[in-house]
Specification:
about 220 residues, mainly alpha
């Protein structure tokens, strides 16, 4: 948060806006969940809960949770649609960077780890934007994708707002919001790292298939 310009500071964005603040909150959450990764989604949600708790933001907590979650879910639907539509056009020419085999590999990864990745990606900046495109490009099963994106959206959007309202007034947390979110990101990334290392170990243990003998010439 400290690396961002002042106009992206969550308190600057939300303080003194009254009911308009809810629209600003939803717009930013939608954009970060679909097309624009460089936005302070985590800290904005947490700060919204904090401001509601100390009456600096005149909004019902439940309304902020419902609207922010809806914005996050709609953003994910849009991002998934972009990946689904744009993917075939990008990989049709089978160029150096856009090969069909990458799509097949992505599809395989999402079939195996997709649900976990979709939920955990919500708590990782940048990744939460791109995972929606990747899921669409990789042709992840839409029913599975939407089921877990709803779960992730509720845990992230509503969860962080409620967390801000409950814990935001604690001085240690209020004065170290950046550190708290770095910790959340690290915890969210750990399962993905463990899965990657596990897959590498299993790959090394799997014996390579024997090469087929060359056909003999008559």
């Amino acid at each position: 948060m400290s690396l961002m310009p002042d106009w992206l500071n969550p308190e600057v964005l939300l303080s003194g806006l009254g009911p308009v603040a809810l629209g600003v909150l939803c717009l930013i959450i939608f954009a970060e969940s679909s097309i624009f990764p460089v936005l302070p989604g985590d800290s904005l949600l947490f700060t919204a809960g904090l401001l509601i708790a100390n009456d600096s933001l005149d909004l019902p907590l439940w309304l902020a949770c419902v609207c922010a979650t809806a914005a996050a879910l709609i953003g994910n639907v849009v991002g998934f649609g972009i990946g689904w539509k744009v993917g075939p056009a990008l990989f049709k020419k089978n160029s150096k960077f856009f090969k069909q085999e990458y799509v097949d590999q992505t599809h395989g990864f999402l079939e195996k780890h997709g649900p976990k990745a979709v939920v955990l990606a919500r708590f990782v900046p940048f990744v939460r934007t791109f995972i929606t495109w990747i899921a669409g490009i990789g042709r992840m099963d839409p029913k599975k994708y939407f089921t877990y994106t709803v779960l992730g959206g509720i845990l992230w959007a509503a969860g962080l707002i409620v967390l801000g309202s409950l814990l935001g007034e604690i001085p240690l947390i209020k004065n170290n919001v950046d550190a708290i979110f770095i910790l959340i990101v690290l915890i969210s990334v750990l399962p993905i790292v463990f899965e990657y290392l596990k897959a590498r170990r299993e790959k090394k243990r799997t014996p390579a298939a024997p090469a087929e003998p060359e056909p003999q010439q008559p």
